[in-house]
Amino acid sequence: MGVTCQILIDRPEDGAFKAGRLVTGTLKYFIDKPTKYERISMCFLGKGDCEWTETDAKNTLYYQNKEKYINQIVNVYVRRKSEDFISGGFEYPIQFLLPIDIPPSFYDKICTIEYKIIVTFAKANSFSKKNFDVRIPVTSYVNPCTLEPITFGLKKNLSFRINNKINVKGEISKTCIKPGDTIHMTLTVNNGTDLAVVIKTELIKRLTYISKGNHKKYHEEAVKNTCTISTVAANAVANLVCLASTYHDLFSIQHAKVMKGEYMIRLKAKLPFPHANALLDIPVVIGQRKHEVIAPAAVYYEYNREQPSHSAMLDQNNKFRNEEDLTKYEKEDLNEDSEKYIKEVNGKDIVQEEI
């Protein structure tokens, strides 16, 4: 039988570990007969991988990317004497500290972001190794795209008509929400045309996969049951309240180089043929902010052995004493991609796109 191993994890109530928090548990293993091991170790590994192919008329192109988020190793046992043999049952505490700046666990056909604890039994004088592992589900914090309510506008001019202007102004009171919360949006639609216009809003999920050479693949889908549709009569003004309820399993994906996951409210003014529709995407972020996932003060090991160094992470994790400090920091350190997106969408308060 050799060695048997159990990796028992103290799972949180919601089933997932938060970035910046401890992963704890107990390692139990049993060696049925005296065996000479060079080393028994635990590794906490977090990594992201993506790969896909694209085919044109002549070629098939292969894209991939990978990165590591955490790679902590603890030696449970190291052989000291050439004659050391060990057998019997043993226990060892599991304590690993998740960094703050990591993406959440994610799995689909193109990309995997996963965290694992891997226990390795390496025999002496041999290349033989036996591995046991357990997957650790992780959720992470998000950087808001803005800390203030976001205002936006959409204008549409109809060609070859005297009364030809449609003007939509709106506001989203809170653009960074927790999973399961509702996005509130107010719209004022001034329809100065002699045509009825349909105003549609919907929550959109967009995944962007990023290869090593920065080639990108996009996947976009509407989130079910988030669509609102209203008709504004010709030469009328309408005040609309639009609600988009999110789900507990929705979350933005940040802090990764292999992919990003974004959400947006898509505002569309739909017009009868032959007029083109007008469309605007307003970014929103779904997830917990940093002050909601602050890490504990320290990591302690029960064994009198050298523990892994967590000092570099602890300083960052305990940087914010309260939400006010965190908010001040976020204003100075908004996610660069989100900040650029806001400037593109909202720089002049009005964006128009013909489709």
From TrEMBL:
<dbReference type="InterPro" id="IPR014752">
    <property type="entry name" value="Arrestin-like_C"/>
</dbReference>
<protein>
    <recommendedName>
        <fullName>Arrestin C-terminal-like domain-containing protein</fullName>
    </recommendedName>
</protein>
<feature type="domain" description="Arrestin C-terminal-like">
    <location>
        <begin position="164"/>
        <end position="289"/>
    </location>
</feature>
<dbReference type="InterPro" id="IPR011022">
    <property type="entry name" value="Arrestin_C-like"/>
</dbReference>
<dbReference type="InterPro" id="IPR011021">
    <property type="entry name" value="Arrestin-like_N"/>
</dbReference>
<dbReference type="Pfam" id="PF00339">
    <property type="entry name" value="Arrestin_N"/>
</dbReference>
<dbReference type="InterPro" id="IPR014756">
    <property type="entry name" value="Ig_E-set"/>
</dbReference>
<dbReference type="GO" id="GO:0005737">
    <property type="term" value="C:cytoplasm"/>
</dbReference>
<dbReference type="GO" id="GO:0015031">
    <property type="term" value="P:protein transport"/>
</dbReference>
<dbReference type="InterPro" id="IPR050357">
    <property type="entry name" value="Arrestin_domain-protein"/>
</dbReference>
<keyword id="KW-0716">Sensory transduction</keyword>
<comment type="similarity">
    <text>Belongs to the arrestin family.</text>
</comment>
<feature type="domain" description="Arrestin-like N-terminal">
    <location>
        <begin position="5"/>
        <end position="131"/>
    </location>
</feature>
<dbReference type="Pfam" id="PF02752">
    <property type="entry name" value="Arrestin_C"/>
</dbReference>
